[in-house]
Amino acid sequence: MIGEASIHGGTSVLIDSPIGLYMNAECNHRIANSLQMVASLISMESLQLQDDQARRSLEMAGLRIQAIAGVHRRLYSTSLGEDSLDLADYLISLIRELRPLCLPSLNSGRLLADLIPMTVPPETATSLGLIAAEAVVNACKYAYSDGRCGDVIIQIRRNGLGGGAMSIADTGCGRSVDDGATKSGFGSRVIDLAADRIGATIRYEDNRPGTRLIVDFPVKPSMQCPIISLPE
């Protein structure tokens, strides 16, 4: 996309020109650094809290900010251009940030990824990152609360409808797919709002055992690529 940006009191540059791309990259870099600083401050504050619920709420707030910062970091370093990034690459970086918070709740289980590279706009990556963070934390919090050991896996696939499908699945104690209580929580509202923002649909399935959250989202056609498995 070609456009103009005004700098230095009236001088215009093409956004797709070298200086325009540099300015855009520098902007993403600074936004990512600022958001990371906010997330770090929230993390430091959470360590001072004695109340477990309050501490986890702050930790989750920090993860949401990190999910958004991660998009800007990828836009800064990507070679795909200013208006797209690789979803698999972004989710892998997000999973690495989620692991320290989630692994203790999995009782020696694993947080895994099974992804295909897929180019998406930044707003799609941001929304899917928020959904993934919420779903993974919820799975770690509730699926293995009875002490059993298990995994949580994030997958990205083509859905056969011209779009993509992201799933987050656990093998825990499960939940009713019609459970209204979970739909009223803050995390569920974040998931619904993030999905609405990109025209995605949310559904839950029985994973036998456990629960699978599936997000069908629109995406521009691109070449199918080999599966990426995230090293443990």
Brief overview, please?
By secondary structure, this protein is of the alpha+beta class.
Q: Would you give an account of this structure?
A:
The N terminus and C terminus are likely disordered. The termini are far apart. Strands 8-9-7-6-4-10 form a 6-stranded mixed β-sheet, with helices on one face. A two-stranded antiparallel ribbon has the order 1-2. It has a two-stranded antiparallel ribbon with strand order 3-5. The protein folds into 2 domains: 83 residues, no CATH class; 149 residues, Histidine kinase-like ATPase, C-terminal domain (Heat Shock Protein 90). The chain has 6 helices and 10 strands, in the order E-E-H-H-E-H-E-E-H-E-E-H-H-E-E-E. The chain is globular, with a radius of gyration of 19 Å. Helix 1 packs antiparallel against helix 2. The longest helix has 29 residues. It has 232 residues and is of the alpha+beta class.
Q: Write out the CATH superfamily name of the largest domain.
A: Histidine kinase-like ATPase, C-terminal domain
CATH topology-level name of the largest domain: Heat Shock Protein 90
Q: Note the run of SSEs as H and E.
A: EEHHEHEEHEEHHEEE
Q: Structural class, from secondary structure content?
A: alpha+beta
Radius of gyration: 19 Å
In total, the number of domains comes to 2
Determine and state the CATH class of the largest domain: Alpha Beta
State the distance separating the first and last CA atoms. 38 Å
**Mean pLDDT over the full residue set:** 78
Weakly predicted, low-confidence segments: 1-15, 222-231
Strand order of the largest sheet: 8-9-7-6-4-10
Helical fraction equals 40-55%
Helical element count?
6
CATH architecture of the largest domain: 2-Layer Sandwich
Shape: globular
Major β-sheet, in short? 6 strands, mixed
Tally of DSSP β-strands: 10
Strand content: 15-25%
Keywords: ATP-binding, Kinase, Nucleotide-binding, Phosphoprotein, Transferase
Pfam family, one: HisKA_2
GO molecular function: ATP binding; protein histidine kinase activity
InterPro entries: HATPase_C_sf (IPR036890), HATPase_dom (IPR003594), Sig_transdc_His_kin_sub2_dim/P (IPR011495)
